[in-house]
Structures are given as structure tokens and as C-alpha cells.
Amino acid sequence: MRLKTCLLAATCIAATSTPALAAPGDPIALDDDVTMDIIANARLRYETVDQDNALENADAVTLRGRVGVEFAAKGFKLLAEGEGTVALADDYNDTIPKNGVEPFSVVADPDSIELNRLQLSYSDDGFTGTFGRQRIILGNARFVGNVGWRQNEQTFDAVRVQLGTGPFTADASWAISQHTIFGSESPNRTFDGDFYLLNLRGDFDIVDVTAYSYTIDYDTRVAFSSQTFGLNASTELPLGTTKLNLSAGFATQSDAGGNPTDYNADYYYASAGTSYAGFTLSVNYEELGSDGGVAAFQTPLATLHAFQGWADVFLTTPAAGVRDYYATLRKQFSVPGIGNVTAAVTYHDFDSDFGDVDYGSEWDASLGFSLGPIGLLAKYANYDASNFAVDTEKFWIQAQYSF
Q1: d(Cα 222, Cα 140) in Å, to the nearest integer?
Q2: What global pTM score does this model have?
Q3: Which residue from 78, 160, 168, 229 has the highest number of Cβ atoms inside 10 Å of its Cβ?
Q4: 224 three-class SS
């Protein structure tokens, strides 16, 4: 506990102090060719969960701190970063079995302290190579991400190579460990295996196209071992005085490694959006398919909270699959004394891909703005189970500072 407190205190001190001869966030020159960059982040969050079951409502106040340093010289960078989370109010199930039976709903932000990133990288003329424990976010994080919403970040022990020339980019990683959000005290803190992640992108004048291949071979979590191949495309079309943004994607997934289930399932995504009078509207469809109810399309490396509703009901895809019809309305406006405020609301309607099951619906809403260097956010999720799962309400307020 003392070590966690020290780490969080160090983060707060770093976030509010200014190194000599450098503004906050600016690298410090140590020599003609060597710089040092201090990285710091502090995030305070209140989260409450109310579910229509026998569990008591969860109330969590957590403080997350990250502090790191990056040295750069002649194209090389060495980064080391620690991360710690402490519960200031802990009336919630933190998912740690050793804490016994907790009669509350889950908030997956346990007390934790760990090495978040330790990486060596080199960049030159369209090439970047990174070795070590690192953050990997591919595309919109639907398949591979850092789960940035939770206090404890997901990172990977990996070798990553990124290449770019003209409109083409390639991004290839081989990872041997997935360090999850569940914290340093959890038996699920790390999943080992071989993860091969490949993205090939062409950004042309008319269309942006990405082809990808993700092979996940777990050592122990074998039921989630899979191979996925897919293609995404997006474009913009003129629509009067504005534009129509269109995107679509398709992928196919099958079992891999030691997965005991033989299956094939498909993924579909389509979106259309436009802006008018300061409002942005998008209508979307996403399907994580099922192989006849035997097994469904899974994304175990993804930033799952960003998809299929903030209530987090579908973190693991049900065997019958999920079809998500949703629309988002967003508006940015100015408030005197505050500045720009962004408000958004999303409605989801969920069905199964197999068996015609009504999974219910969900409303999500958020309001975010900044007061100086402090980012403030309020979020709300309300899931109506329609006899499928459990009615769930969640509410968050958070403040964050980083440089």
C-alpha cells in the first residue's frame, strides 16, 4: 500500500511541477543529441453500478497514476513507465478472488501497481521498430487496443515494426504476453501465447482501405484462440454543403491453436454519418456472428468498452452472436467561462445472430469539457435486458490531468 501511495504521489507531483528550462510536457535537453521527456497522468473517477439482481449497488472511487520517463537520442527512444491504482472508496467487486466474496456489482478497477511500459524503439525515414512492453492500438481498437477506459491499461510484450511510404503503411507485431486490465494481484493479470498482428493500409484520394490478419494462440486461455482475416474501407462523399462519411468492414474468424471448438464465424460493420448545424449524426450496424449457436466471433484483445454499449454486457460475445443496431448524435457547443463542451447520446438495439433472441436495448450519454489542463467527463449507461440478462445502470464522473 505504501508503494502504491508513493507512486501516485510522484505522479501528482510530476503533473504539477515544471522542469527547469522546459514547459510541462516538453522534452528536456540533456546534451546536444539527448533529451529526456517526463510522462505523467493522474485520473480520479467515481463509478456506480445498479443492477436488477441480488447484488448490492457498487460505489467506487479510484485514483490512477502513471509516471514515466523517455530518453531520446539519434532516432532511438527508451521509455519506462509505472502505473498504480488505489481505491479510495471500495464498495465494489474488484474481480480479485483473494479478497473473498464481495456482495457488490463489478467495477474492474482493482488496487494495482505494475510496470506498464518498458520499451526500446528506433525511428528513421518511414520505419519504426519497437521492442518490449508496449501499448498497441490498431485502427479503432475493435480488435486490438489498450482498454484505455479502465484505470489499469492493457499492454503487450511484443516486437512491433511499422513501415510507411506514400499512401501505404504496414504494421506488424508479434506479442508473447497480454497484460490485462485486471491488475497486479489478479490470477488473470497476464495471458501468455503467440499473437501475430498484421495491418496493411492504403490511404488513397477516394477511399481508405485496411486489410488485416490477427492470429491469437493462447497457452492457457485456449477457448479464445482464433485466426481472423478482414478488410475495412471508408470514404467521404459530398452532400450539399457537408459530407457523407461511409465505412464498412468484413472479417471471418475460425479456431486456432488449442481451441477445442471447431467453428467459423463472420463479422460485419457498416456506418453512415454526416454533420449539420453543429450536430453530427451516425447510424451504424455491427454483427459478431455465430456458427449455428456453437461459438461466436470473439475479440479478446480489443478495447471492448467502446463497442456494443457502455454497460459492458457483451464483453464476451454470446454463443448465438450479437447484432447491434445503433445511432449516435453528437453536438459541440460553447459555454461562457468553460469553453467547448461536447455532448453525445447513443441508442443501441441488440439481437442475436442465431436463434432470433431479443438481447434488449441501451441508452448511453456523455458530457465532456476541460477546465484549464483538467479534462472532466460524465457518462451514463442504461441497459434494458428484455429478459436476456440483467437490467443495468452505470454512471461515471472523472477528472484527468496528463502531459
Answers
A1: 25
A2: 0.91
A3: 160
A4: helix
